[in-house]
Hints:
Low-confidence stretches: none
Number of helices: 1
Distance between the termini: 19 Å
Shape: globular
Strand content: over 45%
Largest sheet: 6 strands, antiparallel
Mean pLDDT: 94
Order of helices and strands: EHEEEEEEE
Radius of gyration: 15 Å
Structural class: mainly beta
Amino acid sequence: MTGTAFAPTALRPFVLRLSPGDDLKESLQQLVQQHRIAAGCILTTVGSLQQASLRFAGQDTATLFHDRFEIVSLVGTLSLEGLHLHMAIANAQGQTCGGHIMPGCLVYTTAEIVIGVLAGVEFQRRLDEATGYRELKISQ
């Protein structure tokens, strides 16, 4: 393993319920800023969307979907320096697709999200010359 690993001292849960029309990514960004979350992760999510905006692997722009979708998976890291979130959604026929969450994922009926905040850890985003992206840097 070439990465860095830290053991947080505690995990504090946050529970969030989003309402119809709320933007999933913007709502999570607001929560992070409001509570000054230095290092968080998505523990579980259930809910539905009326619109999804996902950037697929290797693509520069998002694809916008207008339909009713179930959120079947939401994973990612949260910090004051940015969110890195991936989501899988399913349509009425059970067909799924997933990608990087972009602004414009709008809640249909609800999104019930449980977030774990890692005490004693800070997530930062730094340019990684090997990938060309702002990648996760972990510090204590």
